[in-house]
Each structure stands twice: as C-alpha cells, then as structure tokens.
Design brief:
This protein has a domain of 216 residues. The chain is built from three helices and 27 strands. The protein starts with 7 loop residues before the first helix and ends in a 6-residue tail after the last strand. About 5% of the residues have low confidence.
C-alpha cells in the first residue's frame, strides 16, 4: 500500500519546473496543493505530445522483468514519480489512443476518447481522462497509479501494489458519476470507486476498497469528513483473498471473501434508503464498523443486533433504524459491531 509523503521537501527534493505536468494534472487530481508542489520538486520531464487522432505509442522496454526504474509516492493525493532519468509525460490528446508505459517512470494521460493505457516495468501513473477507458496495471513494477477519469471505465490491476480510482470523486462532482469496473488483481491495493454504481474487486492481497473515496483524504486536516463517504449509488464491493477493509454506505453490497475483513458503513439516516448488505459476514472473524452522521442527534445511539425473521441473517439497527444486513450470520451480536459519531474518525 502506498504511504503519503510526510515531508516532501526532505523526502522528494528534486529540481525541475514541472510546468507541463502541472497543466496535465490540474484537471485530474483532487488536490491543488499536491499539484502545486510539483512545480518545485518534480524531476525534469521528457514531454511527448501525440496527435489528436487515434494514436499508438509504446515507451522503451527491454523485455526483462524487474529492470524498471522509479519511485512512486503521494503528496496531498497527487502521485509523485521520480527516476534515474527524466520522468516521461505523455499526452494522448483527443482520439482513441493505445499507450504503453515502459521501463522508465512515466505519467500517461489518455485525454478525450476511449483509451487503452497500460503500466510498464517502471513506475507509472495512468489517467484515462474522458471516455470509456481501459487501464491495466503492472505485474512487474513495484507500484502503479490508475485513474479512470470521466466515463464508464475498466481498471485491471496487476501484481503490484496499486492505487486504482474510478474517476469523479472530488468535491463538487456529485451527480456526474460513472459506472466503473475495477479489479485490483494481486498486491495490496487501494481502490476508490468514485461517484456512480461501481463494481470493485480487491483480488489477492490486503486491500482497502472505498466505494467513493477522495484523493484529498491524504490531507491530515481534511481527512475523512463524513460527507465524503455518502453517494447513495449501488456499488458492489468484493474483497477477495486477504484481510481487507471495505468502506461503503447504505446503498452498497459487500462481500469480504477469505480473510479477516472489516466492513465500514457510513450511515446517514437523513439521506438515501435501504440498508447496507454484507453477504458473507463471519462471526468472530469479520468486524462491522458504523459511522453515523454527526449532524443528526442520535441520543444514546441504541444498537441492536439480532436474527432476522426467518432466522437466516442478522439485522443491525440503531435507534430502530435498520443500518445493515449480515447475510448468513444469525449469531452475530453487538460485540461484532462498533458504532461512532465523529466528524473526523481518525481524530
């Protein structure tokens, strides 16, 4: 899993102006602060501008796995790459482009159109832009960053530890979501669905799957505002193998898969309808965490966990309102659930 940079001036001090890269990232990143920092810290770049048509471009690759270059970290939700050579920045422009990263560190921007972008042996950050894009991660690089952008996108992770984002997930993007398919593949991945009814699969590894998610959650003073976790779209989350964290709201359905999983439900009693559904809750192994809307007076937040009418499932209620259904777990109890009312849950 990628970790945010704590002090970029010390940890990522590289000379260069980064101006073209800043222009390209300005419409892609959730965080203006992170983009602005590139102007003083990013490595000198090798800029490639493709035509406005349907282009095909592949960066050099020696065909030997493990020879890739570069380091990928994040600052204020913005991917920051560096390598021994200048970082490549590829602008696909308009059209349905096919662009493959190679052995070097590279930022790849598909632009408008239905693009096909793939990570290489070096570290890379792929941005699909507008259109129905297909982004593929890497089996040989250590890390990769995939962001589908606008449109109904398909993101397929590889064996690397990757960040995969479906697209519209910034403040102000409400109502413009798309229905994305994201599969993390191997590795310990961070998957963010964005607005829209998304299908999110973790695959192997210990994954964090967030039905919405925002890059700005890396910023300490703005981290995890309650409203950032409610979209009321019907997302499907599947953790797969490993000990996963699945973040959802009342409109979503989640499957943990194998491992000790934590289901984190953001519940707003004043918004949306229905209850979160967890299809494979394992008593004594999995855990349910519920965050309530701090703008509502919940009183003592009376939690009741008991079997459903047919005795097949468990029903989780707070103050008489159904919050979650735990399928196949009629023996679940209040000891399997934690309830909180907090604006910033990481305190």
């Amino acid at each position: 899993m990628l970790s945010p940079i704590e002090d970029p001036a010390d940890e990522f001090a590289i000379e260069g102006d980064g101006s073209f890269l800043q222009q390209m990232l300005a419409g892609e990143s959730d965080s203006d602060a992170g983009v602005g920092f590139l102007g003083t810290q990013i490595h000198l770049t090798d800029d490639i501008h493709l035509t406005g048509g349907d282009d095909s471009h592949a960066e050099p690759d020696d065909g030997q796995p493990g020879n890739g270059d570069g380091i990928l970290a994040t600052w204020d939700g913005t991917p920051m790459l560096r390598g021994d050579d200048p970082v490549t920045v590829i602008d696909g422009g308009a059209g349905d482009d096919r662009i493959a990263a190679g052995d070097g560190a590279a930022y790849v921007f598909g632009g408008d159109g239905d693009d096909t972008l793939s990570a290489g042996d070096g570290v890379s950050a792929l941005f699909g832009g507008a259109g129905a894009d297909t982004l593929t991660g890497s089996d040989t690089a250590t890390t990769a960053w995939l962001d589908g952008g606008d449109g109904d996108d398909v993101l397929l992770g590889g064996a690397a530890d990757e960040v995969l984002s479906g697209g519209a997930h910034a403040a102000g993007d409400e109502g413009v979501g798309d229905d994305d398919f994201i599969d993390g593949g191997g590795g310990d991945d961070l998957i963010r669905g964005g607005f829209g009814a998304d299908t999110l699969r973790g695959g192997d590894g210990d994954d964090v799957i967030d039905h919405l998610g925002r890059a700005e959650q890396d910023i300490g003073w703005e981290r995890h505002d309650f409203g950032w976790h409610i979209d009321d779209d019907s997302d499907q989350l599947d953790g797969g193998d490993g000990d996963d964290l699945l973040i959802m709201d009342r409109a979503d359905t989640a499957t943990g898969g194998t491992g000790n999983d934590t289901f984190w439900v953001y519940f707003d009693g004043a918004s949306g309808s229905g209850a979160a559904e967890i299809t494979d809750f394992s008593v004594g192994q999995d855990f349910l965490r519920i965050s309530l809307n701090p703008a509502i007076n919940h009183g003592d937040a009376a939690l009741v966990v008991g079997p459903s009418g047919d005795g097949q499932d468990a029903v989780v209620t707070i103050n008489g309102q159904t919050v979650a259904l735990l399928r196949g777990a009629p023996g679940a109890s209040a000891g399997d659930v934690y309830v909180e009312v907090a604006e910033n849950v990481f305190g």
